[in-house]
Specification:
By secondary structure, the protein is α/β, with parallel strands linked by helices. Helix content is 22%, strand content 30%.
């Protein structure tokens, strides 16, 4: 609907003091890109949430900050780029240290080399990139020396990635949940691994299949009403994500809790009973002899799964059998699965990696 509406969603006039309109365009990673505008006032609120995230997690703004994210080719070359501060908005209020940028489209080996050589105090990147960098560094027997913590964005953060970073680098991972259309939706609590809704910026609802608010422990679809972007008002915008509602947090912040972000509609599986789950795909590849570099499970048609694997050698027959046995445990009865070795698993348009994809025809026909 947002794509089809186009300029019809734009306000005829903005309230005084809301500033100029700034156009945006989504990555199009799950369909046609969405275009729209933000008011300057709304973007100022975004910057305040960025600052909140830094302060919540007690980052020292005077230290070295590195980001591996999607960039424009003319802005950041293959060698990366150094800039004077973390961001212009932070520099307006705080003295902040140098920042270093690198592009998501570079191979994991190049990203790992850049990170190890740059050796920042903080890293900001997507979960799948982080996972690949840790594995690459492990293969070299190296790890960053100065790194204090890592923040992630743009994808669902798997528990396996948190565990890998903690086990190999001894570092916390602090996740951010946001979208281009509405801005920051939730930040990870500094004391726990669940998320606090950013209620000052967005009214966030989690609704069940009947459109009723979910209770703690229930998974539902997220709808968001931005509170400050009067240039393009959105009411109960369904961004296509699912989350689990959490109970009140004992940290004292008082903001609503999301226990976990389950994922986008195309990245979750709907069971026969109607429940929505994000399959723990990493459980398929435990205790294998073959070196698995990357993987993805695709529901190609209702109840049919193709398990795509990038490996450093031909997959041993025993490992194929183990993967299929694990798949039966993870996905349950009624699914037919096959294993295919592939040369690579490309990222989507927005540089995002998806470990589970339910193709549209599968989602439409599934009971």
């Amino acid at each position: 609907e947002l794509q089809a509406a186009g300029d019809a969603l734009l306000a005829q006039a903005d309230p005084p003091g809301h500033g100029e309109r700034v156009p945006f365009e989504t990555s199009g990673s799950t369909g046609a890109p969405v275009k729209g505008v933000h008011s300057r006032l709304a973007l100022t609120l975004w910057n305040s949430i960025v600052l909140r995230d830094h302060l919540w997690h007690r980052r020292d703004l005077g230290l070295r900050f590195a980001a591996i994210r999607r960039t424009k080719p003319q802005r950041v070359g293959p060698e990366g780029k150094t800039v004077a501060g973390w961001s212009a908005s932070l520099a307006a209020a705080f003295v902040n240290g140098p920042a270093f940028l690198f592009d998501t489209n570079q191979p994991a080996a190049a990203q790992a080399t850049w990170l190890l050589e740059t050796d920042p105090d903080y890293l900001h990147t997507q979960p799948s990139i982080l996972h690949a960098i840790v594995q690459e560094a492990m293969a070299r027997g190296r790890k960053p020396r100065a790194l204090r913590s890592i923040s992630t964005f743009g994808e669902m953060l798997p528990a396996a990635t948190r565990a890998l970073v903690r086990a190999e680098w001894g570092l916390p991972v602090e996740d951010i949940y946001s979208s281009v259309e509405v801005g920051f939706i939730a930040l990870q609590c500094p004391a726990f691994e669940h998320y606090h809704v950013q209620s000052e910026m967005n009214l966030v609802e989690v609704l069940d299949a009947e459109g009723k608010p979910c209770r703690p422990g229930q998974v539902g679809e997220i709808v968001v009403t931005p509170l400050h972007n009067f240039a393009m008002p959105l009411l109960r915008y369904a961004i296509g994500d699912f989350a689990e509602v959490g109970p009140p947090c004992p940290c004292g912040r008082g903001l609503p809790v999301l226990a976990r972000i389950v994922g986008r509609a195309r990245n979750v599986m709907r069971r026969a009973d109607g429940s929505v789950v994000r399959p723990p795909v990493d459980d398929l590849f435990k205790s294998l002899a073959t070196g698995i570099l990357q993987y993805q499970v695709v529901e190609t048609s209702p109840r049919r799964l193709e398990i795509r694997v990038v490996s450093d050698a031909e997959i041993a027959a025993a490992d194929v059998a183990a993967i299929l046995a694990n798949a039966a445990k993870v996905f349950g009865p009624g699914f037919a699965a096959s294993v295919a070795r592939v040369a690579s698993i490309p990222r989507g348009e927005g540089g995002k990696y998806e470990d589970f994809v339910s193709l549209p025809e599968a989602a439409r026909q599934a009971p």
